[in-house]
Design a protein that fits this description.
- A hairpin with a 3-residue loop joins strand 3 (95-98) and strand 4 (102-105).
- The protein is 26% helix and 22% strand.
- The protein is elongated.
- The longest helix has 24 residues, at 6-29.
- It has helices spanning 6-29, 33-36, 49-52, 111-122, 163-170, 194-198; strands at 73-78, 86-89, 95-98, 102-105, 131-137, 142-147, 153-156, 181-185, 188-192, 214-217.
- The protein is built from six helices and ten strands.
- Among the domains are: 73-137, wza like fold (2-Layer Sandwich), CATH 3.30.1950.10; 142-217, Outer membrane lipoprotein wza fold like, CATH 3.10.560.10.
- By secondary structure, it is an alpha+beta fold.
Length: 218
């Protein structure tokens, strides 16, 4: 049997200790495989569908031409009379209710005409009322867009709007068949060729939308 000399045995032990120390250092400095993996980020909370389906921002209502309808939200201000001021919704019967004076017909009036009407009625209980009527939210007149578009759903019809203006507002999808767009108006099916219109051809297709129209982009 081979025997190690004292110096050889000492050298061997030193080398073994150094190797074990090196292995321990490597093991200590190396994190476990699980720890090396970055912690998974918590899933992003789902965005409410209502927020992802925002409607196209409506243009300001022209107080001289816009016709108020049922479900429209009005803001009535009477100077120095907070009891008569606030927001009201036009009921399905076309009327709103104000304190002391009761029901007032609102549907069918422009904001300016309704302002004069309310001032006349309030004049019976208030001395020279200063009234302002504005439309906060249009709900009575809408058109709809569906199919391969950027934004689908109902859109307030606040000002006269052509088909091309409506499509420009909502955006067309990448694979939209632009030559086969259809406007559904009651039982009518009105064809619209986007490519022709933007080239200045057959502009009679670019009709003004009516309340309840539905644009479908295949």
């Amino acid at each position: 049997m081979q025997r190690f000399s004292g110096s050889s045995s000492l050298a061997f032990r030193c080398a073994a200790v150094a190797l074990l120390t090196l292995m321990a250092a490597v093991a200590w400095g190396q994190a476990p495989p699980e720890a090396q993996k970055p912690a998974a980020e918590p899933p992003t909370p789902p965005v409410e569908q209502a927020a992802t389906e925002k409607l196209v921002a409506a243009a300001p209502v022209d107080p001289k031409t816009f016709i108020i309808g049922a479900q429209d939200v009005l803001l009535i201000r009477v100077w120095r009379e907070p009891d008569f001021s606030g927001s009201v919704v036009v009921r399905p019967d076309g009327k709103i209710t104000l304190p002391l004076v009761g029901d007032i017909e609102a549907a069918g009036f422009t904001p300016d005409a309704l302002t004069a009407r309310i001032a006349e009625v309030l004049g019976k209980v208030i001395n020279k009322p200063e009234v302002t009527v504005s439309v906060l939210n249009v709900q009575s007149k809408r058109f709809f867009v569906s199919g391969k578009v950027g934004r689908s759903g109902p859109v307030p019809l606040v000002v006269p709007t052509t088909v091309l203006q409506a499509l420009s507002a909502v955006g067309l999808g990448d694979w939209a068949k632009k030559s086969k767009i259809v406007i559904m108006r009651g039982t009518q099916r009105i064809k619209f060729n986007y490519d022709e219109v933007i080239k200045g051809k057959k502009l009679e297709q670019n009709i003004f939308l009516q309340d309840g129209d539905h644009i479908f982009v295949p």
